[in-house]
Each structure stands twice: as C-alpha cells, then as structure tokens.
Amino acid sequence: MTADRRIGVVAVQGNVSEHVTAVRRAANENVDVVEIRDAGIVPDCDALVLPGGESTTISHLLDTQGIDEEIRAHAAAGKPVLATCAGLIVASNDARDDRVETLDLIDAAVDRNAFGRQVDSFEAGLDVAGLDDPFHAVFIRAPVVDEVGPDVEVLATWEDRPVAVRDGPVVATAFHPELTDDDRLHRLALFDPLRAEA
Known about the structure:
Strand order of the largest sheet: 2-1-3-4-12-11-10
Number of helices: 5
Radius of gyration: 15 Å
Structural class: alpha/beta
CATH architecture: 3-Layer(aba) Sandwich
Largest sheet: 7 strands, mixed
Distance between the termini: 19 Å
Order of helices and strands: EHEEHHEHEEEEEEEEH
Oligomer: single chain
Number of domains: 1
CATH topology: Rossmann fold
CATH class: Alpha Beta
CATH superfamily: Class I glutamine amidotransferase (GATase) domain
C-alpha cells in the first residue's frame, strides 16, 4: 500500500526514535516515516520533525550535511514543521549564542537552558491553544522564548513565559511531547495543516 504522507524526522542527533514512534501513533492514515541524516530526503517530505538534543551539535551537522537549506525551503513552501526543545533553538532566528547557526524559521529569540540544568528538569500540565485538555509537558534542560515577532502565535506559557509557539507552518515547543503517550501536539503540528490543505 502506498503511503498517503511522508513525514521526515531529522536524525542527525537527539530523540529520533521517540519522535518516529509518536508520529506513527499520531497518524490516522498510512504514513511513511523516514529518518533524515543526509541531504536529498527533505524535498520529498510532506512534514518534518526537528527533535531535541544539543543545539550547537544539531546546527553544525545540519550545515555540514547540507540539510539546513532544504529545511528552510520546506518551511518557506508552507509545509509543516514540529521543532522540540533544542529544535526550537535551532529553528529560531536568534539563539543568543553564536555557536548555533539558526534556521530562521521562527521570528523569536530563545534563551537556551532557561529552566536550568538536567537536575532542574520538571513536568507540568499546560493549556495549549488548539487542544481541549491540558497537555502533560516534560521539560529537560528546556529553553524558553524570550521575544516573539508580531506574526508569532504563543500557544502555551509556563510562569508567563512562552514555551510553545507557531510561526506560519512551524510549531515549536520548549518541552518534549515525544516523551509522553499524548500525540495531540504531533497531530496539531504535522497532520491538521496537511488535512486542511488536502
């Protein structure tokens, strides 16, 4: 059977397998989920996931593998992207760290590790725009959005600080939705826009 959609999970570093599982669980249709480690795959994808991990490493590998420009073109074409944790940092246009080569997909400035070190990780119930019930969010060395541009929609906040945003086709979270059994954010980011266009 031919897949209805192809969803790419950028697999240069980070929580790749967890996102692959979450995407498959979220899909109410036949999808082909591919792991992206090299250039040439992104152009054939209907939607992308940019996982968490270590933002400086991710940005460097995207650049050296030539995947960064393909991701920019994907978003510029209006195709959905879900960026989580370090993915949010890389997707922003200001990581406030010269070591991170950002993709400029989100008009936002991000504070890396805003919530502290690994030992400061926590979980919280968040009210997320577009979801009927609170989302159980897992924060691990999480960033936070310090500033957003005029066209960026804040989807969720924690302690009055943005932790989930949408800029056009890109949804980005400071937390790790792939570490829960709740697939609603993957559906919201990756599948609902695709269904709207179908």
